[in-house]
């Protein structure tokens, strides 16, 4: 099952990690560096799921999710939030912003793939 | 996962490169905060830098780094949310923490031992800032937990029996479940992967089509799941939708409830009907998210797209471009010799070729150029450490951080600059009492500036200390036998004694800068970069060390001249004017010292042929040709040459260590005809011509007044 994923993270390391975690499973990974860039990249693709960081310059993860959910095409696109905290209030905030689920950093590649399959098929 | 070892190592390497960038951003942000920046984006940047370092460090299991970054981040988060506003000491602590963070990063990168006790000391201080309220930030349970508690009992049942258990799961999504992009179909499928599932759909709440509101969830599912999995695993499937649905999971192994449901191992058909994924456009819903605009953030971080390239490849490119320039020079020379008309197509083409070559060259140089900012940031750390070591309050002011210099130059400047900065803090600035008694602010200032000036880069380190104590310098130099006693020296000459090997003015050797490494080492380092270093000092006001470096180590706009049948190249940018001497233009001050009249003023005259030892002094300067040179100290000098040949770009070929470092000779080049020519550094030439200058200059000025 090959999924197309958009990964938004301001850290190059994280983007590389995500790409590396997903590539062996045959995912197609697009990356963006922040929320605004994420929206630009999203414009040209139709991802099966989106992964986004929260703390980013220009537009943070919450703003990004909000903007994605505001697009009719992506009201139901699964969005996973990458977070370093497992604090419940952060999950709640992510969910209130419209995130589908979350992954706690540092993530295990297997779990990331599993989580994506769980939300996106 | 063994096949991922390699990419991991690569990502790890790139993580540490990213860390350097983040640390730089951190330093910047802290400096801005220190200067009183009110921009909320500043603290955001600072926070994000630490946060990202922590995130990456976690991925590579760099525990000490994660632990320190986590606490640092927690404190910064307090600042970010306005609950904490750091005072002067707090800011200092932030800087120290940033320095320590970069130590940790480097220690992790190089697999060196991590300075744990230092970490602990700083962690304690950071905790001190936080106060007692948040000793442990890792776990903050919220009202979220209770749901999970109920799973203890069935868990106990499940464990001893790996046999199959049958669960009845009732699952009714709420609207929010769909709004967050979750999909019952996926959940059911994931459940199905745990074992054998019988899914029945409860559509009883579904109204007639006319009354149906498309975005309201009406359906619920009951799943009979026969599985070896325990309840926590089942709950895990619903992790993301916890609280977004009604969910009950019960062990149905004993209570054989009548399953009236049609057995649907797969539920897609039902879901396609029920799920609001098939949503028509709904005005009421669409209206809500539309007015939100992206959160505006500060100007700073415009995302630049960057490619990282191996430096070796750039070196190769630079060298090739150098060859191209030589080649182009040869081509134009042979075309000229062929006697082609300057308006011919070939000559026009050549002109275009020249322009392109120059553009390529500039572009290549820009690749290697880097702002000196990273270097300056390292120096700010040196200042902090040095001032703490000697107990002085010192402020570092930097200017021209954006000035771009060749990367290799930047790297090789770090050591000399470090030494100079330490010197400025340790020797340059007075101690607090001395400052107070001379009416200066107790906080000393060290100024570090960079600027492009007439084709060179000038980097200056200055302090507002007491200036050079010249009598003492002279006394020490005499005592150490560096100069003969009773020698008469100008102020500049005394200052330059500091560069003598084996000279150290520190009354007692401090543990900071007096490590036996003198300014002579600094000067050697600068000279090896093709640079010069000068001192300007004023008693009571301070001292400035000025480093002047060539902009690039590769190409130069040169004036090709002839002296005593030798071909020499001078940097074009220092040549202000060329003159042809007439009778009476040159006047003798005293034997061997001449000045030349230039439009009512007098400029000291130097004969290149004599200075370089090519020939004896000319008897008659009449009809001689003179280059008027601008010196870095703002004065001018006139160089006697025999003729001007050309004005062209030359490729600088460094003279390696095996050549004697002749004063005034900066490098060599290959000319269009294949001939090798030396490139001169006029300031150095004149400096080496002897110490006749200051006195003669004064005399020359007097002559101007009277003439």
TrEMBL record, chain A:
PROSITE patterns: RESPONSE_REGULATORY. The keyword Lipid metabolism does not apply. The keyword Ligase does not apply. InterPro entries: Bact_response_regulator (IPR050595), CheY-like_superfamily (IPR011006), Sig_transdc_resp-reg_receiver (IPR001789). It comes from the Bacteria. Signal peptide: none annotated. The modification 4-aspartylphosphate is found at residue 53. Residues 4-120 form the Response regulatory domain. SUPFAM superfamilies: CheY-like. Keywords: Phosphoprotein. GO terms for biological process: phosphorelay signal transduction system. PANTHER family: CHEMOTAXIS TWO-COMPONENT RESPONSE REGULATOR, STRESS RESPONSE REGULATOR PROTEIN 1. This is Response regulator. It comes from Pseudooceanicola pacificus.
From TrEMBL, chain B:
The keyword Kinase applies. It holds the Pfam family H-kinase_dim. It is an enzyme of class 2 (transferase). SUPFAM superfamilies: ATPase domain of HSP90 chaperone/DNA topoisomerase II/histidine kinase (SSF55874), CheW-like (SSF50341), Histidine-containing phosphotransfer domain, HPT domain (SSF47226), Homodimeric domain of signal transducing histidine kinase (SSF47384). The modification Phosphohistidine is found at residue 51. Residues 276-290 have a biased composition (Low complexity). Residues 351-553 form the Histidine kinase domain. Keywords: ATP-binding, Chemotaxis, Kinase, Nucleotide-binding, Phosphoprotein, Transferase, Two-component regulatory system. GO terms for molecular function: ATP binding; phosphorelay sensor kinase activity. Its EC number is 2.7.13.3. Residues 4-108 form the HPt domain. GO terms for biological process: chemotaxis. It catalyses: ATP + protein L-histidine = ADP + protein N-phospho-L-histidine. GO terms for cellular component: cytoplasm. SMART domains: CheW, H-kinase_dim, HATPase_c, HPT. It comes from the Bacteria. Residues 555-691 form the CheW-like domain. Gene3D superfamilies: Histidine kinase CheA-like, homodimeric domain, Histidine kinase-like ATPase, C-terminal domain, HPT domain, SH3 Domains. The keyword Membrane does not apply. Residues 273-302 are annotated as: Disordered. Involved in the transmission of sensory signals from the chemoreceptors to the flagellar motors. CheA is autophosphorylated; it can transfer its phosphate group to either CheB or CheY. This is Chemotaxis protein CheA.
